[in-house]
Amino acid sequence: MGKIIGNWKIFHTFASTCYAMPYSLLPTLLLQILVVGYTPGPANIYSLAMSLRHGRKQSLVMWLGLLAGFSIAVTLMAVLTHFIGMAFGQYVGYLKYVGAAYIVYLAYRILRSSKQGKEKQGDCTFLSGMLVQMTNAKMLLFDLTAFSTFVLPYSNSLVNLLEVSAWLLIAGPGGNLVWLLAGSYLRRFFTKNGRQVDVVSSIALVLCALYIVIY
Fold first, then answer.
1. Which of 54-58, 125-129, 146-150 is predicted least confidently?
2. Is the pLDDT of residue 66 over 90?
3. Is residue 17 in some structural domain?
4. In a domain, 160, yes or no
5. Vertex 125, ends 123 and 127: CA angle to 5°?
6. pLDDT value for 17
7. Quick one: DSSP state of residue 118?
8. Of 55-64, 73-82, 134-143, where does mean pLDDT reach its minimum?
9. Inside any domain, residue 93
10. Contact by Cβ (8 Å): 152, 81
C-alpha cells in the first residue's frame, strides 16, 4: 500500500510539473492569442504587403524566416524567464526602438521599389522575416505577459514555459500566415492599384513603428 501511495505521489509531482497551468485558463490564453496575434501589427502588415507584391511562393520563404525568428525569440524569452524571472522585462522595452527603426526602413524599401517600378525588388527574404520577428517588441512583450500570467504563478519550470511558448506560435507565425494567404488571394485585385497599395502598406508600417515607440 505504501508503495502504491509513493508511486502516486511521484506521478502527481510529474503531472504537476508537466501541466502547471490550469486547464481552465486555456480559453483565456487562446483568446489573448487571437486578439494579439491576428490584429494588425508590424509582422502581419509586412506579411500582407510582401504577399501582395511578390506572391505566395516567395512570401512563404519570408514567412519561414518569421517562423524561425519567432521560435528563436520565444525560446530565449522562456529560458531567460526561467533563470532570471520577469526582472529582465524592462530591458525588452529598449528593443522596441531597434524594431521600430527596422520597420520604418522596410516601409521605405517598399515605397522606393514601388516608385522605381521594380516589382521583384524589396526585402522579401528569409533573413528579413527573421529580423522583423526578432525585433517585434509587440510579440516579445506579449510573450512576457503570457509567461507571467499563465506559468509563473504556478511554476518556474522551463518545461512549462516552453509548453506555453509552443501555444504562442499560434499567435505569431500563425497570424502572419493568415495575413500572407489573404494577400496572395487578393493579389490580382490589387495588381491594378499596386502603387496605392504600397503607399498604404508603407504608411501602416510607419504607424505601427510610431505606436511601438509611444506605447
1. 146-150
2. yes
3. no
4. yes
5. 100
6. 38
7. -
8. 134-143
9. yes
10. yes
